[in-house]
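Predict structure. Chain length: 338.
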Amino acid sequence: MNTMRLIPSSRSLARVLCNVALAGAVALSAIAQPTPAMQPGQPPGGPGGGGARGVGRGPVAPIVVGPAATVPAAVAIPRPTDAEIAQANRALSKFLSSDSTAEALVAKYPGLIAVQAPRANFAATYTQTQQRMGARHEGFVERAKQGNIDLLFNGDSITDFWGTTGKAVFDKNFGAMKVANFAISGDRTEGLLWGLKNGEGQGFSPKTIMLMIGTNNTGTGNSPALQAASGPEIAEGVGAVVMEMRKDFPNAKILLLAIFPRGADPTDANRQKNEAANKLIAKLHDGQHVFFMDIGPKFLGAGGTLAREIMPDLLHPSEKGYEIWAAAVKDKLAELMK
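Prediction complete.
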């Protein structure tokens, strides 16, 4: 790592700190937190206990962030070593000591300005989310033990609702197959990772998996233990899920879908996060075990607009949306099932 160049003391302190902060190199206190966003399967006011429609709210168990999962190199966020952080802090301290105003500011507020390690990424941990607590998870474990599953669907409510909004479309296109759907409304990458490691990824050997996960990671819902993840952090979480599935199901072929578009148009902040993640997870395609497919454009109109006819809440597909989905993937799934 090259040593940080010292900025001449004649340059204004405000401009220096602005430039460094914009580059993401320093941490400043009192940074505003993002407003929680409504997530798939989540009614206004926050997610219910299981996230699925018709599930009552009950006592909510606390979420404890679990251990880190392995992330594929293709989507890993570059992170500095401890030695590099120390080197950067020495350079920053040297600069600050050359400016009396800056020196006084740091003396008054110790720790206000410092180069810090990037935050831990909760999206790439084995964390039991509220959605993977209780009957849904336990039912998936029992179904896994029974085996006889050729095609596995997994993800969040967008996939979960193949059993409700998309049921007629599912029956028409996939009803004759041996399919299990382990998606849970409201879940995130870390919850899916935990589920796979705790019984949902053992006991059977699917031929093919259709996976889409990550849109819930854009916000925190009403769970303070969870992060609103950036696009690269979501990509790490999706990559970790793919690695876990490769370990649990070494013979399966994974159809990895790009996260679907959401929001009315391309200016939607959460859509932009998902698009950033999609650009990264596309690198996981290897043509042998992982097959990346982006069908998002099929849902969009002119200028990238998303019609409520396709996704009534600008998030979950209508029956017509599921028809578009099925038409886009059924031939590829048939090919991968051979």
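Summary: Residues 1-57 have pLDDT under 50 and may be disordered.
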